[in-house]
Amino acid sequence: MPEQKDLFKQKNVIVFIDGSNFYHSLYACYGINYMDILKLSKKLCNANRNLKEVRYYYSPFIKEINPPLSEEQQRYITTIKRI
Questions:
Q1: Is the dihedral of CA 6, 7, 8, 10 positive or negative?
Q2: DSSP assignment, residue 15?
């Protein structure tokens, strides 16, 4: 069992996001296709946790197979990289 002092010690956190599931779930559940992932990640951390970084993983569409989806995905990725 951890000591009492360790329970209040600030811990570092890295948030990992499965981009495809996140994107499609946002749309399916809430009808939206964008969310501020940094803001969401900070909300997931309570006062005892320090957000160190957010990692967003996705599988890119192949431009030659589906140009419109590839372009839409690239716009989305560009947007979240600015955060």
A1: positive
A2: E
